[in-house]
Structure formats: C-alpha cells, structure tokens
Design goal:
Layout lengths: L1 H34 L1 E3 L5 E3 L3 H7 L2 H33 L6 H9 L6 H11 L6 H8 L13 H29 L3 H9 L4 H12 L1 H16 L3 H7 L12 H11 L3 H33 L1
Antiparallel strand pairs: 1-2
C-alpha cells in the first residue's frame, strides 16, 4: 500500500516537476550559459568566460539603472510600509466599522494591470492634453502648461507613486493578518499591566510583526528591483528623461531584445539576482541579528 501511495504521489507531482524543469530550471541554467558567451550572430555563441561580468562591473549605464531602481523602490516602499502599518493598526486594533469594506477599497488598485495604470497617468500628465495641466491652468494655479515628464525627479516620483498606489493595500492586508495573529491574551495582559497604546505598539505589536514585515520587505524588494511595466509604458522603453527611468530590467530588455545582445542581457539578469539575494540577506540579518546574538 505504501508503494502504491508513493507511486500515485509521484504521478501527481510529475506535472509540476516537468513544468519546473522545462520552464524554470532550464531557462536559469541556459541564461547562465549565455552570460558566459559572446554572440557573433543570431545562432553562434562563443564562450568567453566571465568577460561579460567584467564589462557589467564597468558599465556606467547599468550602475545608473541600479541607482534609479533603488531610488524609485525606496520612494515607494517607505510610504507603503508606513501607510500599510497605520491602516492595519486602525482596522484591527481600533475595531473601525466597515473595516472589511475599507480593506477591499484599498486593495482594488492592485487588481488593475500595471501597464493600464502607466497609460492612465501618462494621459493625465500629458503636457498638451493632460487633465492635470488643464485643471491647474483653469484654476489659475499655473499660468501655462508644464511638461511634467521632462523632469527626472518628477518622472521618478510619479513612477514611485503608481507603485505605492497599487501595492500599499496589499501590504496593509498582510500586516493586518500579522496583527490579527497576535494572541488577544498578550494584548489584554499589557492593558492590565498599564501599558498605553504607544508601548503596546512598540513593545508588543511591532516585535511580533517581524516575520510579516520581513516577508513584506523581501517580496517588495524582489518586485521593486524588477520594475519594468511603468517605466516601459511612460517612456516607451527609452528610460527618459535623462535616463532617470532606466531601471535594471528595462536596461536588460533593451540590451537583450532591442540591441539583440542576449549574452549581456543574461549577464544583467544575474547581476539583478545577486543584488536581490544580497540585500534580502541584509534585511534578514537586520531584523533577526540582534535576537540571534542575545540568544
């Protein structure tokens, strides 16, 4: 009976195993192989070792794209975490009426495709026909229309805002689940002991939220380092103005598919992978490092 169960278990696992091998493991291995080659033409790849990685280290455009990506992510993630945490606390610990309705409303932007949001904001801030310019001019706030997307800082800010708008509701739901998982006995005991709302937040809620916050940080980092849709939509792949929206994945896309340099595109992808792994480990160490030392 045990052998039969093991046999059927393996059969049911085969679709996942085959899918993983064909669509995930093979592309990962093949991409690494490509990163070690030079593309002579569409079919011939010559092995060059780690030359592409040496070029990547000295590639100023790549490091600019790294800086752009980090800046956009931080401008999005810090407000996202603050708003998500505040909303989670208000909707959970203060028993606000209609909490379920508010959670659904805050989550709604996440259901819209990223490209659609990019097209919407591109239309809103179009300097000739955009609704924002027209409204500000009609209200006499502006004397003449402004080309908003010609400013690198504004372009990065609007990209970060779109990311924040789409994801802070999702983060608040995760943080709400983390707060709801805190035993009520712990909260009640702290109230009996005389702890005020601030002490309950800093001494109980936030420490017990560490696993959830780590998950939110790491998943946000992974998504933020791979931001592509919004810069692609806003700039049609150019990364302008002044390459301020040239993110790492957009640079990868341009090198691999516009310039037809697949080996260098694969090299960039592994560069992104190393950056994500490195900073994910740092986040884990920062959150749990002190506890490990004290133990």
């Amino acid at each position: 009976m045990e052998k039969k169960r093991a046999k059927w278990g393996l059969i049911f696992c085969l679709p996942f195993i085959l899918t993983f091998l064909v669509f995930q493991l093979y592309p990962i291995i093949y991409s690494f192989y490509l990163s070690l080659t030079f593309q002579e033409n569409s079919r011939n790849f010559v092995f060059v070792g780690f030359d592409n990685y040496k070029d990547l280290i000295n590639d100023k455009t790549f490091w600019k794209s790294v800086g752009n990506t980090w800046k956009i992510w931080l401008m999005n993630f810090i407000p996202q975490l603050i708003f998500g945490l505040v909303l989670a606390i208000l909707l959970t610990q203060y028993k606000i009426k209609g909490a379920g309705f508010f959670r659904a409303v805050f989550y709604l932007p996440n259901l819209i495709t990223v490209a659609s949001m990019g097209v919407l904001f591109l239309a809103l801030f179009d300097w000739q026909t955009g609704s924002v310019n027209n409204a500000l001019v009609d209200l006499a706030i502006l004397k003449e229309k402004v080309n908003w997307m010609s400013s690198p800082s504004f372009a990065q800010g609007i990209t970060a805002f779109i990311q924040w708008l789409m994801w802070f509701g999702y983060s608040s739901i995760l943080l709400t689940a983390g707060i709801a998982a805190i035993p009520e006995e712990v909260i009640e005991s702290s109230v009996i002991d005389g702890a005020n709302a601030w002490k309950r937040l800093t001494k109980i809620t936030l420490p017990l939220l560490k696993p959830t916050m780590l998950y939110v940080m790491v998943t946000s980092l992974i998504g933020g380092m791979q931001i592509f849709d919004i810069p692609m939509t806003l700039t049609k792949g150019s990364g302008e103005p002044s390459k301020s929206l040239m993110t790492m994945v957009l640079y990868l896309y341009n090198m691999a598919f516009k310039n037809n340099d697949l080996p260098y595109g694969a090299t960039i992808s592994y560069g992104i992978f190393v950056i994500i792994i490195f900073f994910s480990l740092i986040f884990f160490k920062v959150i749990y490092g002190k506890e490990e030392k004290s133990a």
